[in-house]
Amino acid sequence: MHKIESYLPQLEAFLCAAIRADDAVSEAMRYSLLAGGKRIRPCLALEFCRICGGDVDAALPVAAAVEMIHTYSLIHDDLPCMDDDDMRRGKPACHIQFGYANALLAGDGLLTLAFETLSTASLPPERLVRACGILAQCAGHLGMIGGQTMDLANEGQSVGLETLQQTDRLKTGKLIEAACVLGCVAAGAAQFQTDAAVQFAHALGMAFQIVDDILDVTSDDATLGKPVGSDAAQNKNTYVTLCTLDGARQAAQQYTNDAVAALAPFGEAGETLRQLAVSLANRSM
Q1: Which end of the chain has fewer CB atoms surrounding its CB within 10 Å, N or C?
Q2: CA dihedral 242, 238, 197, 56 (to 10 degrees)
């Protein structure tokens, strides 16, 4: 069976070569982009490209672009005006290491570099144009940024489960959706395959965020690589606060089951993604 980890050496090499300048902002960009992490989103893009019959090598810039967007969002999330976290992936956050201004610019630089990188993919022009639009929409004010806006507005407020779900679908789920759909676009996938990818992404994104909520309560700083308990400290609404710890665990399992079920159209080719969904639900860091 194909292993999702097999993409990592190629991805890391591509990301290492992506930032060529040596100024302070470029150093901050490189610091955060190469700080580690599971590379879940770019691996999703490459795996969906593969199981839809596409050229994985040609999709590498597409996958890297998604990871650049994700990294920029983490840099900005950690800033004092957002979540105000000092640690990320077991290292000082970008603004702690390089200062507020350089971190802000590093995030902006990675956002811009993402679309420059995407434009270099050896794909038919119509696929590139579509991919660019999808990534912009999923990352923008109606997607990931919209979710972050809702997350900030929810702090200290009493919100219902529906509002929390919408926040999570945008804040976490939309970039996961972008990764899955961009893999399909790169491969020239059939519509039924893209539809299945969207359903998988929606369920996986919810499960992923709920497990994050759980780990913020049950894990520790060393294991998680970032401060735990920050949700409670900022009076954030989470699945744990709204549904209890047991309720959150049940919800994560249900969404994981939904993600696995969404892969049915891919048959045996979807086994790697099935195993990834299960492993993410059971992760401890």
Answers
A1: N
A2: -160
Residue 171: CB atoms within 10 A of its CB come to: 22
For 107-124, write each residue's pLDDT tens digit.
999 999 999 999 999 999
What is the per-residue pLDDT across 229-252, written as a single tens digit (0 to 9) for each? 566 556 678 999 999 999 999 999
The whole-angstrom separation of Cα 183 and Cα 131 is 9
Q: Quick one: how many helices (H) and strands (E) in the chain?
A: 15, 2
Q: Say if residues 103 and 28 touch (Cβ distance below 8 Å).
A: yes
Tell me the average pLDDT across 49-75: 98
Q: Which two tokens stand for residue 14?
A: 């591509």
DSSP letter string over 140-167?
STTTHHHHHHHHHHHTTS---HHHHHHH
Exposure string over 111-122, b if 16+ CB within 10 A, otherwise e? bebbbebbeebe
Does the pLDDT of residue 133 top 60, yes or no? yes
CA–CA separation, 141 vs 14, rounded Å? 28
Q: What residue spans of 53-99 are helical by DSSP H?
A: 56-77, 94-98
